[in-house]
Amino acid sequence: MKKHYSGTWDSVRTHEVPDWYEDCKFGIFIHWGLYSVPAYAPRTWELGEVPGDETWFCNNPYAEWYYNSVNVGQGPSYEHHKKVYGEDFAYENFADMWKAEKWDPDEWAELFKEAGAGYVVLVTKHHDGFCLFPSEYTDYNSVKRGPKRDITGELTRAVRNQGMRMGTYYSGIIDWRFANDPIYREEDNFDNACPTAAYADYAYMQSKELIDRYEPSVFWNDIGWPRQGVNALPGLLSHYYNTVEEGVVNDRFNGLYHDYTTKEYKYGESTRDEKWEMCRGMGLSFGYNAEEGDDKIISVPEFIRLLVETVSNNGNLLINIGPKADGTIPQEQVKRLKQIGKWLKVNGEGIYGTRCSKRENELREDVDLFYTRKEDDLFVFADVKEKLPQEIFIKGAKAPEGVIALDENVELTYRTEQEGVYLNILKNESGFRMAGVRIPGGE
Ligand SMILES: CC(C)[C@@H]1NC[C@@H](O)[C@H](O)[C@@H]1O
Predict the structure, then answer these.
(1) Which CATH class is domain 9-350?
(2) CATH code given to domain 357-439
(3) Which one of 80, 109, 238, 264 is most buried, by most CB atoms within 10 A?
(4) ipTM of this predicted complex?
(5) Which of 261, 186, 199 is nearest to 225 (CA)?
(6) CA of 127 to the centre of ligand 1 (A)
(7) Is 368 in the pocket of ligand 1 (CB under 6 A)?
(8) Percent of the chain with pLDDT over 90
(9) CA atoms of 310 and 315, how far apart (whole Å)
């Protein structure tokens, strides 16, 4: 019998993280919008590497923050805007320059499937307020302007046709169409936000539009929720769960509630005790930044390691792609998605549907070990730093039925002693640094 949520916090808090979210491990974030037209940000730091003050906000590496990076009236993006578009060029002009003329949602969905993703989260309204869906509450949207298409609807259909789950990102507390004082520090995200009940209603009604039109499997709210609208949250979340039984929400509702917690680059905390999600761009930005080429984004080994490390610590990896304004995905991003898909095709049994092993990961001098478990199987992923052969001692492990390499191009021997298992990776011709093994009945 379908559970009913009654609009109270007590009721909402009985919601449990659905198995699909625990099992799928890997998703694709998509930041695509007006900011994809200028596609500019300085390449400075990862979030969390410098204080969230003027240092960050006047040299913001997030290309999707272009509006504010110009609005602060100083720094690389402001200078770039003056030089390329002119000081008086309004950001809204990008709404009629964004054509998405080469966009094929099915092509995107096929690539995400090939990458091994289980879910996709599309930014439907970022901080700039431009909606990628036909909102009844503003004409500043992708059906009335620019592409003249229901981007969210078309991508939802294509993603579901590939058997993946579709999620929607919504910028709850920040909307620069309602309040656009420049943001110079983290606290301005809340202090400069629109304080009116009218904006809180707007955010509520648009969120309800997204829930009712698309029934997203993930409702990804960002930064926070309008303070004037906090009392309506239990009702909105109850409506969401009553509409999308296996829906799931993140932790950016002013600390009031979450199904799972989020990390963003180096920002945020996570523990193995509860479900969490790692979000980051392939480079330093979420929106497409034309300044970021192949040499400046995450390498394939780092990408695979990030996925394995995240999953082994009870997380999901939501890696972001920043498409170009024309609707094509930069080749350096396509290449990495295809490579991780190739690795997952062979090693995915140790990732998908697994849970945390009781073993903590081990970062050693010569090798890093990551563990997952699924039913009676223990999986060990070895990021072997030194050249092979490489003997790896797994203290206290048992291998009653032996040890099997997940990739036939990985050659290994093993022996079990009282004190543990000695695994020897002799050769790894898989083309990937991270090698996975399965230990049936292993501990
Ligand atoms: C993780 C991702 C959704 C980021 N959240 C904070 C935003 O300010 C940033 O642009 C990006 O959307």
Answers:
(1) alpha beta
(2) 2.60.40.1180
(3) 109
(4) 0.98
(5) 199
(6) 9
(7) no
(8) 95
(9) 5
